[in-house]
C-alpha cells in the first residue's frame, strides 16, 4: 500500500488519537462545518464535515494533466449545450424510457421553440477523476463524470488545506505540510457568478441560490454567498416553493421572486426526480428557464451533463465534431476517457450487456442520475441487466469500465465513528468556470480542485451521501 505518512506515525495509536482530537478542533476552527442530522434545518448545533486525518498522495504530473484539460472540458460542455441536434440524437433513446430526463428535455424543447431570452451563459462544473492502475504497473487519469449541476464542496474542500497543514506540523512533518497546494475554489466559482451578474447589467438585481428546504450542507454554499457579498453583489436563498408562490416575469421576461429582480439563478437543487414534488415545481423550473436571468446551469447545459451524453462523446469521431481545428484538445480529452458503452437495443448494446454479464466486476452500470449512491456494481449489475435486457428500459443506463485505483491507508474522521486505519480510494475533482456572452467566450478558467476519499469497502457515494470524506492532495 502507498502511504501518505510514515509507518511510525500511522501505526502509533496514542499519537493518532491525539492528532484526531487536534484535527477535529482545527476543522471546527476553520469552518469545515455541517449541520447535524438531528436538527438539519438549524445552525444552533453543528459538527465538522467528515474528513481524512492525513492528506492523500497525488502525483503532481497527473494533477497538472487534470488542470490542463479542464478548459477544454468547459468548452466541450458549452459546445454540446449549443447543439440541439446532437442533444436530441444522443438522448433520443434515453428520453423514451427515463421520465425525468424526458421532462427536462421537454423544457429544453420549449426554450428552443420560444427562443432564449438571455444570451449570457454561465457554467460552473466539476470534472471528477480516479487514477486507474494498468496491468503494466503504470497508472492513468480517467474521468468518472462531469457535473454540470450544483457541483459542491468548493467551500469546505478549500478550507481543508489549512487543517491538513496544521495536522502535519503537529505530527512533526513540516516538510510534508509544505506540499499541500493552496486552493481557492470559492474565488474561482464566485468569479464566474460575478461576471454573469455584471453582464446582466443591473446593480439592484440579485444572485438567487435555488436551494432545498432543509440543507445540512449549508455552510459550503454560504462560502460562495459570502464571497459574493464581499464583492458587493447581493444574493438570496430561495426554494422551488418560493418561486411557485411569488415568481413572475414582466413584459421583458425579467424574473422577480418575492418582489426582487433576479440576475442569476444558481441551481443548487433540482438535479434529482424527487426534487420536483408537483407540477407547480416543474412550472417553476420552466418559468426560470424562460426568464432573462442567467441560469447556472441552463436547461441545455443540464442535459449536456447526463451520463448518456458522456457515453456518446466517447464514440470515435465525436470529439472532432466539436473541436475540428484543435487536435490537441481532442487528444487531451480522449486520454481521460474510460471505456463507455451504450446499452441501446441493437448489436452494440447486446455486446455490452454480454460483456457485463460475463464479468460484472469489471464494470459500473450508471443511470441518468446525479448526487451519489445511484450507480450499480457487481452482482447487482447482473440482476438489473437480466431484468431489463429484453426491454427498452435498458436505454436508461450506460455501462462504464470500472476504474481500479491503488488503495492508500488513512484514517477517516467522522462524528461518532470509530477511529481505525482504513484502505481508502480517492477521487479528484477539478472545478471549471466559464461565461459566454452570445458567441464570445469571455471567461474560461480552472476554478479550483477537490479531493474526496472513501473506504475501499464502499463502491459508490460522495460526501453528501455520507460515504466519502473531504481530503487534500499531497503532491509527490
Account of the 3D structure:
There is one protein chain. The protein is built from 17 helices and 21 strands. It is 39% helix and 25% strand. The protein has helices at residues 7-10, 13-29, 60-81, 84-95, 99-114, 154-170, 174-177, 185-200, 218-230, 240-246, 279-290, 299-304, 307-313, 318-322, 327-334, 347-358, 379-388, and strands spanning 2-3, 33-35, 46-48, 51-52, 56-58, 120-133, 139-147, 206-210, 235-238, 248-249, 255-257, 260-267, 294-296, 340-342, 363-367, 397-401, 408-413, 421-437, 440-455, 469-471, 473-475. Strands 1, 4, 6, 7, 17, 18, 19 and 20 form an eight-stranded mixed β-sheet that branches. Strands 8, 9, 10, 11, 12 and 13 form a six-stranded mixed β-sheet that branches. It starts with a strand and ends with a strand. The longest helix has 22 residues, at 60-81.
Features:
8-stranded mixed beta sheet; 17 helices; alpha+beta; single chain; about 475 residues
CA-CA gap between termini = 15 Å
Oligomer: single chain
Shape: globular
What percentage of residues falls in helices of 4 or more residues? 25-40%
Number of helices: 17
Q: What class, by secondary structure content?
A: alpha+beta
CA-based gyration radius: 22 Å
What do the pLDDT scores average to? Answer: 93
Segments where pLDDT lies below 50 for 5+ residues? Answer: none
- Our estimate of the beta-strand percent is 25-35%
Mind describing the biggest β-sheet? 8 strands, mixed
Question: Care to count the β-strands?
Answer: 21
Amino acid at each position: 500500500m502507498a502511504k501518505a505518512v510514515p509507518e511510525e506515525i500511522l501505526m502509533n495509536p496514542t499519537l493518532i488519537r491525539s492528532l484526531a482530537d487536534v484535527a477535529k478542533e482545527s476543522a471546527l476552527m476553520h469552518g469545515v462545518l455541517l449541520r447535524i442530522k438531528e436538527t438539519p434545518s438549524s445552525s444552533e448545533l453543528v459538527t465538522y464535515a467528515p474528513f481524512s486525518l492525513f492528506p492523500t498522495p497525488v502525483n503532481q504530473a497527473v494533477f497538472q494533466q487534470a488542470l490542463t484539460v479542464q478548459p477544454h472540458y468547459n468548452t466541450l460542455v458549452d459546445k454540446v449545450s449549443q447543439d440541439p441536434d446532437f442533444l436530441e440524437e444522443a438522448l433520443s433513446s434515453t428520453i423514451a424510457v427515463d421520465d425525468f430526463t424526458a421532462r427536462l428535455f421537454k423544457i429544453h424543447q420549449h426554450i428552443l421553440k420560444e427562443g432564449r431570452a438571455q444570451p449570457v451563459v454561465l457554467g460552473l462544473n466539476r470534472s471528477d477523476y480516479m487514477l486507474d492502475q494498468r496491468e503494466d504497473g503504470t497508472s492513468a487519469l480517467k474521468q468518472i463524470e462531469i457535473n454540470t449541476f450544483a457541483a459542491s464542496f468548493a467551500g469546505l474542500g478549500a478550507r481543508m488545506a489549512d487543517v491538513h497543514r496544521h495536522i502535519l506540523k503537529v505530527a512533526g512533518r513540516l516538510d510534508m505540510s509544505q506540499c499541500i497546494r493552496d486552493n481557492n475554489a470559492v474565488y474561482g466559482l464566485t468569479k464566474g457568478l460575478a461576471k454573469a451578474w455584471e453582464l446582466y447589467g443591473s446593480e439592484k438585481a440579485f444572485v438567487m441560490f435555488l436551494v432545498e428546504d432543509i440543507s445540512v450542507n449549508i455552510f459550503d454554499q454560504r462560502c460562495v454567498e459570502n464571497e459574493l457579498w464581499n464583492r458587493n453583489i447581493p444574493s438570496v436563498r430561495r426554494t422551488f416553493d418560493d418561486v411557485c408562490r411569488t415568481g413572475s416575469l414582466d413584459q421583458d421576461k425579467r424574473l422577480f421572486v418575492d418582489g426582487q429582480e433576479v440576475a442569476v439563478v444558481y441551481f443548487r437543487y433540482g438535479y434529482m426526480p424527487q426534487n420536483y414534488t408537483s407540477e407547480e415545481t416543474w412550472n417553476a423550473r420552466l418559468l426560470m428557464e424562460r426568464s432573462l436571468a442567467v441560469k447556472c446551469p441552463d436547461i441545455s447545459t443540464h442535459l449536456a451533463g447526463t451520463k448518456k451524453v458522456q457515453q456518446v462523446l466517447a464514440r470515435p469521431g465525436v470529439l472532432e465534431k466539436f473541436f475540428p481545428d484543435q487536435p490537441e484538445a481532442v487528444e487531451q480529452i480522449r486520454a481521460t476517457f474510460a471505456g463507455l458503452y451504450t446499452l441501446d437495443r441493437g448489436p452494440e448494446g447486446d455486446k455490452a450487456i454480454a460483456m457485463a454479464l460475463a464479468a460484472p466486476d469489471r464494470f459500473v452500470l450508471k443511470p441518468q442520475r446525479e448526487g451519489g449512491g445511484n450507480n450499480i456494481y457487481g452482482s447487482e449489475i447482473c440482476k438489473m441487466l437480466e431484468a431489463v435486457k429484453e426491454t427498452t428500459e435498458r436505454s436508461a443506463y450506460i455501462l462504464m469500465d470500472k476504474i481500479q485505483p491503488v488503495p492508500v491507508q488513512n484514517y477517516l474522521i467522522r462524528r461518532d465513528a470509530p477511529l481505525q486505519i482504513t484502505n481508502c480510494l480517492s477521487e479528484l475533482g477539478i472545478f471549471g468556470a466559464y461565461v459566454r456572452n452570445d458567441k464570445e467566450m469571455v471567461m474560461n478558467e480552472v476554478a479550483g480542485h477537490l479531493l474526496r476519499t472513501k473506504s475501499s469497502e464502499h463502491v459508490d457515494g460522495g460526501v453528501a451521501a455520507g460515504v466519502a470524506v473531504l481530503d487534500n492532495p499531497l503532491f509527490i
